[in-house]
Design brief:
Layout: E1 14-18, E2 26-32, E3 35-44, H1 49-52, E4 61-68, H2 86-100, H3 105-108, E5 112-121, H4 126-143, E6 160-168, E7 171-174, H5 178-183, E8 186-193, E9 198-205, H6 212-238
Parallel strand pairs: 4-5
Antiparallel strand pairs: 1-2, 2-3, 3-5, 6-7, 6-8, 8-9
Helix pairs in contact: 2-4, 4-6
This protein binds uridine-5'-diphosphate.
Length: about 240
């Protein structure tokens, strides 16, 4: 039993609210327990200059920004003004890479999608929840393109979700909160597609090592959690 009463293979309660704000074509408030994020997807009808200069400029692009708001954690996190810190840079690149894996950029055409993940409250698992919520925001944003994209060629080729897993006191556990994350012997972030393939696995052991068998156990746990998250994504998108 875990400190919050969950079973080792149990996700935190997930809440998803689409169209949370009005201006962005995709806007999702998503929570996993006490971790809460606002994820928006915006569409810019241009390409970044480096991309526009590319011979394949008819293809679109997707990029992401991530920010933990000052009051999202204690002690307060300094507002990132001019310089994004190393952790946020790493996380926003992960979110962008992950969500690019489900976009057919020829079908999207020469436009840029920006995913913004703002952490309202941090309690572990912000990067993975940003990807899971980002997929929903992305679906909503793409839907607003209407006739600007071909009906015969879907822009989104699969679904994407992500979860953290780890090893705590020798036991593999799913969806770590901050207390678990800070004490875990192993911390693994897993991103998968709807067809059950991996996009990214980030894994670190702290002060010990882990075996191939333990890696496999954690990946199985992650896959189980991701399947549940995908069902919740689909339910939210239908609602
Ligand atoms: N955290 C924090 N301040 C920071 C970085 C992390 O409070 O500057 C906390 C926060 O709760 C976060 C957790 O530590 O969710 C785990 O951070 P990690 O870098 O492992 O990323 P995450 O699990 O959020 O993707």
């Amino acid at each position: 039993m875990r400190h919050d009463g969950r079973q080792p293979d149990e996700l935190r309660p997930i809440r998803i609210q689409r169209q949370f704000t009005k201006v962005a074509p995709g806007s999702v408030l998503i929570s996993a327990g006490d971790t809460t994020l606002l994820v928006t997807a915006s569409i810019d009808e241009t390409l970044p200059p480096w991309k526009a200069a590319d011979p394949a400029a008819q293809k679109g692009w997707l990029t992401a920004e991530y920010c933990m708001l000052p009051g999202s954690t204690s002690p307060r996190k300094r507002r990132e003004r001019e310089k994004v810190d190393g952790r946020s840079t790493e996380i926003q690149r992960l979110i962008g890479r992950s969500l690019r894996a489900c976009v057919d950029f020829e079908a999207l055409g020469p436009r840029t999608i920006m995913i913004d993940v703002d952490v309202l409250q941090a309690d572990g698992g912000t990067r993975t929840l940003g990807i899971t919520g980002g997929y929903i925001a992305l679906c909503d944003a793409i839907a607003t393109l209407g006739d600007k994209v071909s009906k015969d060629r879907p822009v989104l080729t699969t679904s994407i979700a992500a979860i953290s897993v780890g090893i705590s006191h020798g036991t593999p556990i799913l969806d770590l909160d901050y207390i678990e994350d800070s004490q875990a012997e192993v911390d693994l972030n897993v991103v998968m597609t709807g067809s059950g393939e991996f996009i990214e696995i980030q894994g670190t052991a702290e002060g010990r090592s882990f075996t191939r068998a333990q890696l496999d156990q954690q990946l199985s746990l992650a896959e189980k959690g991701i399947r549940q998250l995908m069902e919740l994504q689909q339910a939210a998108l239908k609602g």
